[in-house]
Structures are given as structure tokens and as C-alpha cells.
Design goal:
With 302 residues, this protein is of the alpha/beta class. It has a 3-stranded mixed sheet with strand order 10-2-11, covered by helices on one side. A two-stranded parallel sheet has the order 1-8. A hairpin with a 5-residue loop joins strand 5 and strand 6. The chain is globular and about 55 Å long.
Length: 302
């Protein structure tokens, strides 16, 4: 990273120069709680893209030990890099989605979300047939599905080619990888929530508190940039289950779908199902007018 880029250390210095001494101390009060679990070495950790292989191994080992200490569960955290000649994309057939929200539950379990809030990266909107007004979509329906006169639209991170969340981050804690997945270095995020405000799809989540997960419910197969348990005070998002997809598996939400509404794959593979969908269906993206160029597509059979 270039030397002129803002770092966490510089961000705190700017904060101290801007606020009075009393206000600065109050602004840093959460750090007093963080130090119960975090030493100075962890707080001053390098950005993900600056870590060499030895440093990464040390970080992963520390995170594994920290998870076992906090949650009483042994986990394996890996650093899984993008595959060459790969550009991931997702498509969703709205004609067959029934709004069952099994994708939501699968995301919740796979990605080690907080159990108290039942957090997930996916929202399912119940929409009136003939309308595409997302603002009128209902995410809190509790009746049998599918309901007459409605269709269902799951919404998650659109993995935009031109992601506004990336450009607003003051410390470069979020970026787009070569396979198209927008990721977050949760150890570098300062929790300013600029990215959350910039996302037009409401796809980012802020951790107001440390996630609560029983040890026997933790998914132990984790990755640094995906489903490891995120700390309090950071923003998180869907990452196309990169700990699965970068090793040739499918996203958890897709495997959980009972109707086959979801299609995922490498668009650079001419024989892939996702490539066939994009070439043969009338696909559309959400809020096309914004120029974000999502990699998440929707289509109807009829």
C-alpha cells in the first residue's frame, strides 16, 4: 500500500487533533474494552495485503487461539486466495423462488453469525406481483409461502464491479479481489460505517457487539476474509462463501435452496451454468441506473 494512504494509526491521530482532550478520551473509550481481549500487537497488525506468509501464519494461529479462548471451540482459519482465470457471478430465478428463507438460515449458520440477533447477509423481500418497488418489499412476513399475488426477491451483496463501498473506505479495509469478490479485512476496519451508508443495496452489517454463538453451533472451517467470527465494532458482508467457492464448492445459500432458484459459477468458463443463464435468459440487475455493475443477476422464466 502506498505510504500516503491513511492507516488506522493516522486515523486515530486525526481524531485526536480534531477533538478536545476530553472528547478524544470519550471517543476512544471502546478501546478500553477491546484491550480485555486484544493486545497491542494485534491492534497494530498490518493490513491483509501487506502481510507476508510468515506473518499471515502467525495471525491465523493467534485468531484460532483467540476463538478457542472466547468460545471454547477449536477452529481452523485459513487464508484462501482467488483462483486464476476466475470471475464469480450469481443469478437468481425469481419465477421459482418461494420465499422459504432457507438461504437466510444457511447463511446464518455457515458464516458464524450472532445467534441473538439472528443475523444473516441475505434479506428476502416479499413483493407484489407486477411491482419492482423494493422500498415496498416486506421482509417480516410470517405466513405460509408462497403467498398468492406475490413473488420473492432475495437480496444480498451484489459484488459490484464498481463498488461504492470500496471507494468511500478511509482506511482501505475493503477492496475487490481478482475473482470479483469484495472482501473486508476485519482486523483493519475501524467501524466508521461509511461503506454501509454508501451501499445502495443495504448489504452490509455492523457488529454492535461481540457475536454470541454456542460452541457446538460454530462452523469450525473458517477463512480470514470470510466466515471467521467477526469482532465487535466492524462492518461485515457477504463474500460469496469464498472459503467454499474458491475450492470448487457452492455457496451455502445455493445448496440450501429447495427449488433450484440459485445459479453460481465462473463466467469465464464457457461451459458453466451461470454463463448459460447470462447468455440465454433476460437477466437484469438491481438499480442499474447507479452504474455499480452488479455481479448478481435476476431473471424470470416467464
Amino acid at each position: 500500500m502506498a505510504e500516503e494512504n491513511v492507516t488506522r494509526r493516522n486515523a486515530l491521530k486525526v481524531l485526536g487533533a480534531t477533538l478536545g482532550a476530553g472528547a478524544f478520551a470519550r471517543a476512544l473509550a471502546p478501546l478500553a474494552e477491546i484491550t480485555q481481549f486484544t493486545n497491542l500487537r494485534e491492534f497494530m497488525q498490518k493490513h491483509y495485503r501487506e502481510l507476508n506468509s510468515d506473518e499471515m501464519r502467525e495471525v491465523l494461529h493467534r485468531l484460532e487461539q483467540d476463538t478457542e479462548h472466547r468460545y471454547g471451540c477449536e477452529v481452523t482459519i485459513r487464508d484462501i486466495r482467488p483462483q486464476r482465470h476466475t470471475q464469480f457471478a450469481y443469478a437468481l430465478n425469481l419465477s421459482v423462488c418461494i420465499g422459504c428463507r432457507r438461504c437466510v438460515e444457511a447463511c446464518h449458520q455457515e458464516n458464524n453469525h450472532d445467534r441473538t440477533t439472528h443475523q444473516s447477509y441475505i434479506r428476502v423481500l416479499e413483493m407484489e406481483q407486477g411491482s419492482m418497488d423494493m422500498e415496498r418489499g416486506n421482509t417480516n412476513y410470517d405466513h405460509d409461502v408462497p403467498a398468492p399475488g406475490h413473488f420473492y426477491m432475495p437480496v444480498q451483496c451484489q459484488q459490484c464491479e464498481n463498488p461504492p463501498c470500496v471507494s468511500v473506505c478511509p482506511v482501505e479495509a475493503t477492496w475487490q479481489e481478482t475473482d470479483g469478490i469484495v472482501v473486508v479485512d476485519y482486523n483493519w476496519c475501524i467501524g466508521c460505517r461509511y461503506c454501509e451508508a454508501a451501499c445502495p443495496y443495504h448489504a452490509r452489517r455492523f457488529n454492535w457487539r461481540r457475536p454470541e454463538i454456542p460452541a457446538d453451533e460454530i462452523n469450525p472451517n473458517q477463512s480470514y476474509l470470510s466466515n471467521r467470527i467477526r469482532p465487535q465494532g466492524v462492518v461485515e458482508k457477504c463474500h460469496f462463501c469464498l472459503h467454499r467457492t474458491r475450492e470448487g464448492r457452492l455457496p451455502a445459500c445455493l445448496e440450501a435452496c429447495p427449488t433450484g432458484a440459485r445459479v453460481f459459477g465462473n463466467v469465464l468458463d464457457a461451459d458453466s451454468e451461470i454463463r448459460w443463464v447470462l447468455e440465454n435468459k433476460r437477466v437484469f440487475v438491481l438499480k442499474e441506473e447507479l452504474g455499480t455493475r452488479p455481479r448478481f443477476f435476476y431473471f424470470f422464466d416467464r
